[in-house]
């Protein structure tokens, strides 16, 4: 049976010859009038969109979220409205610091981004596999990421920059301790938890709000990878995690996570022992126990990696009614930065791509821009307010009012205890886990060029727990500074 599909240009015209370019005679130079050749070459030159500045290497899958607990008293979000309700979703897992071709099994946090295609629009929960982060104010984010990238002179990763920044940013200690622990290298993407990390606000039908934190608990169990095996796989099988996720779903072994939340009454934010909006801190589960919300299942692989995984765009600013932002300074910066990165990387109309397009109807007055591939609003009215029955706002979708007070200025968080929670985490570890933690830190810090940076960081470890700092100092052949 012959193939009846005809080869065409991007504008649908049939291609007469796809093997030979047009030339001036058999040996003559190529003609610029060969528009099919020019189109092929020009498109090929543009096949790679700029990779993400962070989270460049990733894997993704489709699935669904099913509500298992009625939490309508806390949020009016429609996709969480009743037990048994299912919402389609897409998840992208990623490493943070490496480039698009980097290895999966490096020691790095993992991005854990979930796009819920709800009937009220897309809701993106853009977190990590850790409940905290290295910094707590978005103004420090470009500097932090610069330390994770390549040195501008050598074009090599620079441990001196990494530890110099961390040692001068003590709020990073909690996340550094997690990163350098066994959980710094998950065995697979299926065997790790996910977190919203930030504090968010839930609002119910009566306009009453609560603060909330998200926890995705893997049903596969936590499994981590030995550093030696991770290094071996990084060289021999750099796409190990990507392949594992694809094969598991392809074979019907669908990974799943239970979603839980911690709920804090609005008024308790002012009196809690930690600032609840500081993303370098966790809320004690003894103070705010986990409450089950639902179950996430990944059951379908992408058909095309570029179209679905690479072009997927997530923003923590993509909210739906019933879910709002908090004063978390890191979150506040991300509300702008993520969508702005997508406008640069994919284009102003990135939300029209099939992987990003909401299932809900979209009506607005945005027009034009690169890659506008729908009817661009047609002949409909293109401004608001108008007298021609164009889309109108819904006051019920407004953000709930919240109190703002004080003088404008540059402020730090109220609490500067960066050591208690890191020390508590260290003391929760077994002796073997502490040994591996210290060994991982020592190996990572050995290349640091300046001894003063090592000593500064050792002080932080020691303040978290004297044994913690002493172990690292001993491994580096140093002594704990006297002025800790």
CATH topology of the domain at 58-136 and 186-358: Catalase HpII,  Chain A, domain 1
From the alpha-carbon coordinates, what is the Rg to the nearest angstrom?
25 Å
Name the CATH homologous superfamily of the domain at 58-136 and 186-358.
Answer: Catalase core domain
Q: Helix share of residues?
A: 25-40%
Overall description:
This is Catalase. It holds the Pfam family Catalase-rel. Residues 8-25 have a biased composition (Polar residues). Its EC number is 1.11.1.6. It is built from twelve helices and ten strands. Helix content is 26%, strand content 15%. It has 484 residues and is of the alpha+beta class. The protein has helices spanning 35-45, 141-148, 159-167, 173-179, 227-236, 240-250, 305-310, 329-345, 420-428, 431-445, 451-464, 466-475, and strands at 58-67, 86-95, 110-118, 121-128, 194-195, 200-203, 209-218, 256-265, 291-300, 323-324.
Topology:
Layout: H1 35-45, E1 58-67, E2 86-95, E3 110-118, E4 121-128, H2 141-148, H3 159-167, H4 173-179, E5 194-195, E6 200-203, E7 209-218, H5 227-236, H6 240-250, E8 256-265, E9 291-300, H7 305-310, E10 323-324, H8 329-345, H9 420-428, H10 431-445, H11 451-464, H12 466-475
Antiparallel strand pairs: 1-2, 1-9, 2-3, 3-4, 5-7, 6-7, 6-10, 7-8, 8-9
Helix pairs in contact: 2-3, 3-11, 4-9, 10-12, 11-12
